[in-house]
Design goal:
Blueprint lengths: L1 H17 L2 E5 L11 H10 L4 E3 L8 H10 L3 E6 L2 H6 L2 H10 L3 E4 L11 H19 L4 E4 L8 E2 L2 E2 L1 H7 L4 E5 H6 L4 H7 L6 E4 L1 E2 L16 E2 L8 H11 L3 E4 L6 H16 L2
Parallel strand pairs: 1-2, 1-12, 2-3, 3-4, 4-5, 5-8, 8-9, 9-12
Antiparallel strand pairs: 6-7, 10-11
Helix pairs in contact: 6-7, 9-10
Length: about 270
């Protein structure tokens, strides 16, 4: 009996450690938060979302913003990092992450000429990201890269992005499934091929019939409620559960984000219950 109870306890804590948490990328509310930061942070908590990526400080002091987060039981789990800042000086990035208690640092864009990025540029970025990741790891931080669709130009028997997936030694990925799909990639296939490299995912669905794009640009109004577009969000969540992805981050850049986000939260919760 004792052994049975112990097995149950271990299984419970194992489930807790691997359970996915719903988060919100605050860029989704970039137009609303400046109007009333208090109102919209409370709204996020009312949706049942308590993990945030990015900052919604607007004109508030850091002290005021930390207080607002505490009042609504919100936590910042990830902050952004500019590519050029990564190459120049990591100290401000580390300081910001530590101030807010974030564990993840994401670079969202690699500077390059308009259009698809070249393999040489991806190789240089990969080398920098491995160097940055190793240093951030010493500070208890995990470095992530967020693909934007421009990395999917053909290269050999695959695409340019394959080089980075394969050679990411000291960093992982905050994969935006919308942009991967826009570039012509298959998020589920990529997750299965490069298992364990996706502690954070940006979940964003795409209106059926939307054309692809390999320049990192697209119509934000094609962002739809999760589960209603042409991206296999259910399949992605299923694979995320298998791999122990920590955060399922909703990002809705459309003008309908306030109406759509609660519906997307409900969809994720339903999938997690399966």
């Amino acid at each position: 009996m004792k052994r049975l109870i112990l097995s149950f306890i271990l299984a419970f804590f194992s489930f807790q450690m691997n359970a996915q948490e719903i988060a919100l990328q605050l860029y989704s509310l970039r137009n609303q938060i400046p109007q009333d930061p208090e109102k919209y942070h409370q709204m996020v908590a009312d949706w049942g979302v308590y993990a945030l990526e990015g900052l919604g400080r607007h004109e508030m002091s850091e002290f005021e913003y930390l207080k607002l987060l505490e009042e609504n039981e919100l936590e910042i789990v990830g902050v952004g990092a500019d590519f050029n800042q990564l190459a120049r000086d990591l100290n401000p990035i580390i300081a910001q992450a530590k101030l807010y208690g974030a564990k993840y640092v994401t670079c969202y864009w690699i500077p390059h000429e308009e259009g698809p990025i070249s393999l040489d540029e991806i190789k240089l970025a990969t080398a920098l990201f491995n160097q940055v990741g190793a240093e951030l790891k010493e500070h208890g931080l995990t470095f992530l890269y967020h693909p934007h669709g421009y990395e999917f130009a053909k290269a050999g028997n695959g695409v340019v992005m394959d080089y980075m997936w394969k050679n990411a030694e000291n960093f992982a990925f905050n994969m935006d499934v919308f942009w991967v799909k826009m570039g012509g990639g298959d998020p589920v296939k990529i997750m299965k091929k490069y298992k364990g490299k996706f502690p954070m995912l940006h979940l964003k669905d795409r209106k059926i019939g939307t054309p692809g794009s390999m320049d990192g640009h697209g119509d934000v109004e094609t962002n739809v409620v999760l589960g209603t577009g042409d991206i296999d969000i259910a399949g992605i969540i299923k694979e995320a559960k298998k791999q122990g992805t920590k955060y399922l981050v909703i990002e809705d850049e459309s003008s309908r984000s306030v109406e759509q986000i609660p519906q997307s939260v409900a969809f994720i919760k339903k999938q997690l219950e399966k």
